[in-house]
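Is dihydroflavine-adenine dinucleotide placement plausible here? Inputs below.
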Amino acid sequence: MPDPYFDVIVIGAGAAGLMCAMTAGQRGRRVLLLDHADQAGKKILISGGGRCNFTNHKTPPERFLSQNPHFAKSALSRYTPQDFIALVEKHCIAYHEKTLGQLFCDGSAREIVAMLLRECESAEVDIRLGHSVTAVRKSDHFTVETNHGAYRGGALVLATGGPSIPKMGATGFAYEIARQFGLAVTEIRPALVPLTFAGKLLEFCKPLAGVAVEATVACGARSFRESLLFTHRGLSGPAILQISSYWRLGDDLAIDLSPALDAAHYLKDQKRTRARAEVKTVLSQVLPSRLADAFAQVHAPDGQIANVSDARLDAFAEMLHGWTVEPSGDEGFAKAEVTAGGVATDGLSSKTMEAKAVPGLYVIGEAVDVTGWLGGYNFQWAWSSGWAAGQAV
Ligand code: FDA
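Reply from A.M.:
I modeled the complex. Tokens:
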């Protein structure tokens, strides 16, 4: 008996694969969607603290990292946040804007997965979970061998994401198959990942684990002003996750622990009005008190603020606005929200995501060398690239 034949085989039932499969199915294509996991959309389910930050009102290309910063433009402009919001509204899923244009479900990320599965069902997509792909071959069609037998497809879409969070079944499978077909893969690394410290800096951070503060974190010319969180291993929180995508081993970070305040002005004002207070006490009015204590202990002059010269207060204020630290590493793929790098965009059409040299082979979502900022950008890239391929297969 010949292997079952489909117009399109999509490997990976995550965000990008589900979107691609439903879009192709709606066009009347016979679609098979395979995944080795026992559940579709596992990363969607855990995203956004269980509420799925499914897009962002604004997705300008500069909020995506790639060796070719122009590559993402076409797909992002053809399937926009507004298109995905319309889908969410069609399914009566309540949502809200949290901050910085980030849209979250009011209820649960499960609603987004259920919505995509409903769309796939009505587009008659054949979804088969628990299917591990063991080999892929191409002749005049693609053959995908799995632990449940082989399938043939006219087109093959790689939507297996990147290797971040391997314990959820994430793999570098897309890179393997892309290389098999002669496509280049850029350097990959963990992104949107907590940073770690060693030595004195680690000793400083550890006891502060759990303390959060609004900060501006800069690496070279790039900076983010968001919340920063001290951890047992170093620093995390949105500001750190964002900068981690730009940070390389050996780079310093400059951290402004009090970006909303002119610290020199504040300290000198306190010197006049609260002369007998200690620096750490006046600092605890503007920083979380555990952080104020720890920071003052290392960097502030002892004693009453009245006895500290203005020059020393200026120097301390400068330290507060420009705390310079050198991370010793990051928490790796085990903790990275995404993988930066991936299948090189040079080899793909930005309009359809098809491999230029391998007709019928498509790569979408996180597997591609396009990585968004924190804030719904990575899902929007998955929807947009999945839709673009779904229109073309
Ligand atoms: P995705 O990883 O979603 O899907 C890949 C699929 O392929 C999986 O179902 C996997 O099982 C399957 N697969 C892998 N290897 C396979 C193989 N060898 N054979 C068969 N199947 C295979 N982004 C965002 O915009 N907003 C947010 O709120 C969050 N929050 C968030 C939280 C956490 C904890 C993480 C880890 C990540 C996020 N993200 C996010 C990032 C977002 O989840 C991610 O960018 C998208 O899920 C990528 O979608 P893809 O479909 O490309 O891969």
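Short version: The chain has a mean pLDDT of 97.
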